[in-house]
Amino acid sequence: MKFSSRQPEPANMQLAPMIDIVFLLLIFFIVTWQFTKSETELSVSVPTAQEGADPERQRGEIVINILANGMIKIEGTSVDLPQLLKKLASIAAQYENQPVRIRGDGGVAYQRIVEVIDTCQKAGIWNISFATQKPAPSN
Q1: Does 33 map to a domain?
Q2: What residue numbers bound the domain in which 109 lies?
Q3: What's the CA gap between 122 and 46, in Å, rounded?
Q4: Percentage of the residues of the chain whose pLDDT score is greater than 90
């Protein structure tokens, strides 16, 4: 009796599915990074503070930008105080202890900041923080 010494062929690794998954992950991270960047207005120059912390965002944090002219922007759209109240109230009804970060321009009137804080409190949001930046190092 003669036995065949054939060995099975080595299995080939399919690269196409792995490349597809890598590209999908890459697209996912690029898109989510773009969404977080769009929430901060570049035209807002936040005040400086000696003890200013690096901007570590909390999970699900809402960013409210207040421009130098007093305009309020949230999620890239301009809103007035009643619209802000409606939006924040609907979010606060769904999520308890919703964090909000107020990015007020250094040149905006303090009264406008107080109006936004008051609107947040009317909506039931009490977890409010303020964006600051560290002063530029002096030479």
Answers
A1: no
A2: 38-130
A3: 24
A4: 32
Would you give the DSSP letter of residue 73?
E
Residues listed for the chain: 139
Contact 123, 95 (CB under 8 A): no
Give buried/exposed letters for 48-85 (b at 16+ CB in 10 A, else e): eeeeeeeeeeeeeebbbbbbeebbbbbeeeebeeeebb
CA distances from 7 to 1, 4, 10 (A): 18, 9, 9
Q: Which residues contact 65 (CB under 8 A, 6 or more apart)?
A: 39, 40, 41, 44, 72, 73, 74, 103
Residue with tokens 């000696």: 50
Average pLDDT, the chain: 82
**How far is CA 137 from each of CA 42, 44, 51, 60, 134, rounded to the nearest angstrom?**
21, 20, 13, 32, 9
Q: Is the pLDDT of residue 41 over 60?
A: no
For tokens 């003890």, the residue is: 51
Cβ count within 10 A of residue 18: 10
**Overall pTM surpassing 0.85 (yes/no):** no
The token pair at 11 is 């299995």
Q: What is the CATH number of the domain that holds 71?
A: 3.30.420.270
